[in-house]
Amino acid sequence: METIRERLEEDLRTAVSRLRRMGGAVAVEELPGPIGDNSPFADEVDEIQANERREIGFATRELLVDRVNRLSAALDRLKDGEYGTCVECEEPISPARLRALPEVQTCVRCQDRIERMGRQFEREEEDLETADDD
Fold first, then answer.
1. DSSP bridge pairs for 92
2. Greatest C-alpha distance within the chain
């Protein structure tokens, strides 16, 4: 268990460090005004590329925040003696899965079910939206 804790803590430190390095990088370029004399961009393509980089930065930051939260939760589960047990079915999570994703909370079977339900839920929402449009 000590090795697991060390791995989780190291992964957490790495993720937090990456998040801190990104912190200001995403917000460096504020939303510019219209293209013209007061714009820092030479043309619309430059502005589009800057917006794209900013959006990628926001998405990356969001993924890192999610990982930090999952790693912290895994450390809490380890401390409480619940690490390695699926939060859905309470069966053990395979050691290979835990080695690959130490912060994982569900076994493969439950994760597959959750993802299938999510896709089904998304399809149902789409069906409702198209029905509302009719």
1. 85
2. 63
Distance of CA 15 to the CA centre of its chain: 11
Q: Measure the CA–CA gap between 56 and 48, rounded to whole angstroms.
A: 12
Q: What one-letter code names the amino acid at 8?
A: L
How many Cα atoms sit within 13 Å of 10 on the Cβ side?
7
3-state SS, residue 65: helix
Taking the model in full, what pTM does it have? 0.68
Separation of alpha carbons 101 and 89, rounded Å: 18
Predicted confidence (pLDDT) per residue in 72-104, tens digit: 999 999 999 999 999 999 999 999 999 999 999
> Which of these, 12, 27, 122, lies nearest to 78 by C-alpha position?
12
For residue 104, give the amino acid letter.
Answer: V
Tokens 């004399």 -> residue: 37
